[in-house]
Amino acid sequence: MNKMMNAKFLLMLVLGMMLITFTACSDGDETSAGDTEDTTTNEENTDNTGDNTGDTADTSGSSDELSGEVEFMTISLLPAFEDYLNGLKESFESEHPGVTVKINDVPYDQVEQLVLTKAASGDLPDVMNLNTDFVKKAGAKGALVNMDEAAADVKDTFFEGIWEAGSVNGSVYALPWYTTTSGLIYNPELLEKAGYDAPPATFEEAWEMSPTILEKTGAYGEVIMPEMHFQFPKNGIPFLNEDNTKAAFNTPEAVELWTKYKEYYDEGLYDIDILLNQVSMAELYAQEKVAWWYTGPQLFRQVKDLSPDVYEKSLAGPPLEGTAGKQHANPMNIAVSSTSKSKDAAVAFAKFVTNADNQLAFAKEAAVLPPVKEAIEDPFFAEGEDSEDATERGKFYAAQALDTAENMIPPVESVSGIYEAIHQAFQRVLLQDVDPADALTQAEQEVNSLLAE
Amino acid sequence: MYKARHAWSFLSIPLLLLLLFTFIPSIAALGLSFTNYNVFDPVEWVGLNNYIQAFQDSEFRKALFNTVYYWLLVTPVLVVFPILIAVLVNQKLRGISMFRLIFYFPVLVSVVVTAILWKWMFAKQGIINYFLSFLGIGEIGWLINPSTVMLALAFVTVWQGFGYYMLFYLAALQGVPKELYEACELDGGSFWQKHIYVTVPLIKPMIFFVTVISTMGAFKEFTLMLTMTSGGPLRASTTAVLLVFQEAFTELNMGYASAISFILFIVILIITFINQKFLDQNPR
Amino acid sequence: MAQTAIENNIKMSNKDGYGKKKLLRAGGTYLLLLIVTCITIIPFLWTMSTSLKGEKDTIFSVPPQLIPTDITFSNFVQVWNSLPIPMYLLNTLILTFFGVVLPLIFCSLAAFPLARMNFKGKNLIFMMIIATMMIPNEVTMIPVYLVIDKLGLMGSYAGVIVPGAITAFGIFLMRQGFIEIPKEIEESAIIDGANVWQIFWRLLFPMLRPMLGVLAILSFIASWNNFLWPLLVLDDPNSYPITLGLYQLQGAFSANTRLIAAGAIIALLPVMIVFIIFQRFFIEAAYSSSVKG
Fold it and tell me: Reduced to 3 states, what is the DSSP secondary structure of residue C82?
């Protein structure tokens, strides 16, 4: 009998709690449904939102035409940038009383699953922080607002090479929000032990120094990193032909480059575990197992987390250059869903987030660079050349390189397939002793068939 | 003694829930395997194209091969080893519940921590090679060598899984009548003899269950590969479901991903039938 | 600790005639268990020690440095201060409560007829249930999401809980449990005039205890660690469970392993407590003959 009572009690408890949860949820649904009703569903993207962007905030009544709820999806920015994001939300809302902004932060690893699932139910966030690869995939499918049209008024404020990052099949589908270019953090102690008093300036020099460094200190010099595919454009080898219809990386220069890489590998100058993401450069550098790390200064502080001592003695220098003399600028982008119910407000918010003032403020907080020309002129980026702090100095050099930097990601939908083909070919060269020329030819064929689809 | 209406009264709510959240989605996924669904574009019926493509796809063949290899490495160990452990921790000894908890630890460790930890353990200059060096075994690039990567991942799987399956066997052992052991002891049976002749036959249904579950687990595993190796090097650790995941969420080929899933489904189904023939003796 | 345990067993064993043999066996058992322990406890020790390490200690060193020299609780403090941990824990508690109780009820309900009754379509239903286990979740995820959306459960805890309220795995497990109960037990109950529900609730359900314990533990872990689904369904960060909250420790520009480890320990402790409670619930009948003879 007692057991029966217990069971009944349990059942009541379950039903009761279910009831509470269900009512709580239906309340939430009602409010959100109410919000979307008074949304302007203007499908045409006219430029009437232009006056709301830029650093001169519009205070006239005209901006009040904008209304609706704008969901802003960010990637792994909370809680570190909570104040900054809330500030954006509040100032935009006060400029446009009809608009409410909702910030939704998503872990980096789950972005694609989340965005695709939401897209399947027609529930894509209005404004999204997306990486460049994904912008190209979603843009090609027509899921994002064409920014060449919707943001024509602000297009010229961006660096051209970075504005182009969001382009696929001839149109641009995102506004660059912040960007990173590389600097170089190096360990002067290790260099000194190997008899060098300055870090390398080019990749070629870097490889030349590597054997001595390895011999004298046991640490690696130059290594092949997971982003090795960008070594092509950095050394003047294009991924694709002019009209992006065929692979163009199977050149004698590429064969020569890979042949050298294979030699270096056989000499033990670097190991494949870095390329395969098995060890992180931050860790290797922090353990003084590598003499320098060519990466964005925003990541230098990872060294500080792992080993404050090593960070303390580190210095920063200008980024290594390939034969093309150009740096790759990889922006994070702000895109607007083409199915957004409050598209005008969403586009206005996207422009607001990426305007010079807001970009500058974010760049200062996160040690990244603003892709807006006006913002980079801020004295902040001219400082740091003599700083003792590696991040500060790295920021200076990275900012210097931004002028000539460009986004090197090919403007096609199948970017990830192209990288994959190149990586598989390179791994065959290293692990299976495949001839570099054969491997490149095979990768070329794979990329061509991808592009033909 | 029971009537059909009894059965249906018990099954009604569960079946409704299963219908909504299991059967309908599964059938929807099956339907998608005949389309070019990619979330964004309008859906087009492509007939058997995805299936034909799968059979011509060398990547898929490789992934299927990898999956079977992984299954063969993992499942036999996960079926047998946990029985031994369960028998050991089912004794009344001081502190034994502590051991049960410790063996279950690996199950509780999050994916993120597992990946960080084991990458470090398996690194060329990592702990595993450090200990192996005492045995005179040279540096092995466990996760960066196509021929060892699956062995390493299988090891992590066993490490993470044996406590999980130990739990099932422990539950099954609770149903073994103690008198049977006493009888066996009177006949002079040793500790292990006792268990081979008494325990194993009695927990055979559970052995069947664990075989089925761990088989499905092995065939569906991909998180471990995704977080530890991304399927590399040279796709040597790309399992079928990792390929499904990549096709669906990186390449946006949901239709193709579904087709691969259903080919895999048929493979698991056949294996499960074979298992049932050999192990399930409860066709009540 | 093991030392005293062995001594205690000596005392216990000496009471009976087989003292020496039993002692050997207990010692052997402990030895085996300790070897396995060495392998399984590493992650816990490493996570624990990493979470306590200060800036001066290296994390990824070989041989591993398990005892921090620069011991500090600042990592825990930092995690606690930067995230609303108690709120996340409370959210997780609500989600896991339903995530444990509902499968226990619904899976047993479904498993009972599938294991102990004969009716038309039984095998078909069982095969269908088992078959769905063979389909990767990655391809059914979007369809399930659409069902939740159509039911209007998006953004609510119900949307997180309901899809896991019954699982094919759980039904399979409970069926296994029901099958192992001897048939004669019900027959006598029926003679006593009990109806079907009484047999289920009063007679068989309590006998399922070991299996219910297993399912409870597994469901608990599953809902505790579940983060992709809550991420998809919930839209308010204030309703996030702990695992999802802890993901915030990996920022866009930083991944501080010490903080991640501290977060992992915070999330692990409640699970350990639950495991200890539940395993007592179903292994209390551990047989004792091996020691007492």
Answer: helix
